[in-house]
Amino acid sequence: MNNVVSDPYALYRMQIGAWVKERMKRTPNVLQIPAKGLDIFVARDLLTRDECEQVMALIDKDRVPSGLLSPSGDPEFRTSESCHLRMTDRVNIVVQDKINHLTGIQPAHGETIQGQRYAPGQQFKPHNDYFHPNTDYWESMQRSGGQRTWTAMVFLNDVEAGGQTWFPDANVRVTPRQGNLLLWNNMDEYGQPNPYSLHSGMPVEAGVKYVITKWYRERPWTPVPA
């Protein structure tokens, strides 16, 4: 608990973690997934088939090779393609509103939604969504809204084989199902980075996988200047 006293935002992270957890438990069509050390939920059919298909087409239009906050010596660490959804497209506004309404987190705390596409063989090896102090990017992330709290990921299509989202330490493996949202807390009950949130996008074995991801911050988010 000493970190809570020394970190001015730890109390907020504790409170938003507990608040969203209880909100999800009371929300129809949302299930808590049994997990070791991790609060994780699935909301079934958050998006319609038509909404998913529209967003997939937009991802195909704008996709570029995915990047990393911190360089990796492994060229196979993240091999997907990504893009930020444009809020000039009406369907993206509808999708963002649905995610914000589900979580109840203040919309200003949410980053721009990122779209991701995984072709056969592509993957994202185990990583955490929270930010690690003592890194080159930490200062700029602090300026842009601070630590990430919750992650919301929506599967836009069923995948023929592979492509599960795997939490190895929490002992959870989730198969993509079109329209379903996966939501987890990157912080622990004390508002500190939770190592049980380590996860990976497993290699796609057949077909193509499309997802969108929205991250929430401890403070209102502002983009980092290029």
From TrEMBL:
Keywords: Dioxygenase, Iron, Metal-binding, Oxidoreductase, Vitamin C. Residues 109-218 form the Fe2OG dioxygenase domain. Signal peptide: none annotated. Transmembrane segments: none annotated. Its cofactor is L-ascorbate. The keyword Metal-binding applies. Pfam families: 2OG-FeII_Oxy_3. PROSITE patterns: FE2OG_OXY. InterPro entries: Oxoglu/Fe-dep_dioxygenase_dom (IPR005123), P4HA-like (IPR045054), Pro_4_hyd_alph (IPR006620), Pro_4_hyd_alph_FE2OG_OXY (IPR044862). The keyword Oxidoreductase applies. One of its GO terms (molecular function) is oxidoreductase activity, acting on paired donors, with incorporation or reduction of molecular oxygen. This is Fe2OG dioxygenase domain-containing protein.
